[in-house]
Amino acid sequence: MTLAQVIKKLEDLADPEKVLFKEKKYGIHSDNALGVYMKDIKVLAKEIGRNDDLSLELFDSGIYEARLLCSKVFTPRNVTEDLMEKWVQTFNNWEICDSFCMTIFARSPLAVKKALEWVERAPEFEKRAAFVIMAAFC
After folding, report:
1. SS3 33
2. pLDDT tens digits, 13-68
3. What angle do CA 125, 99, 41 make, to 5 degrees?
4. DSSP, res 109
5. CA end-to-end distance (rounded Å), the chain
6. What's the rounded Cα separation, in Å, for the pair 15 and 109?
7. 101 close to 126: Cβ distance less than 8 angstroms
8. Is 31 helix (H, G, I), strand (E, B) or coil?
9. Which of 66, 126, 127, 79 is nearest to 106 (CA)?
10. How many CB atoms neighbour CB 87 within 10 A?
């Protein structure tokens, strides 16, 4: 599946009302969001399977739900320290932080190292990433 095909599928699932609902009910503020629920993203991730190249393209698209999907299709053992740093610095809500930490970071060989490092950080979601990794790793 190509990036364009995946974006089209996300756009077909889009509902701007869901963006407002998630923000009001769960405090999930997300920039450039389409309004797709996680359950639908998980279904799409199963359809795609593991695909690191597509995953990187999804993240770089800047679309919120594409980034969530990135966290579901990237192979945890292939994550690099540079990639973890790039991604963690973009987290701006608990949903995206937890998604990356539970499905990629905690399953990577770098989990413990990054958790111990990030726990000392000041930015809210970088520090949160450390604790989510710890919880998911255990």
Report:
1. coil
2. 999 999 999 999 999 999 899 999 999 999 999 999 999 999 999 999 999 999 99
3. 135
4. T
5. 34
6. 37
7. no
8. coil
9. 79
10. 22
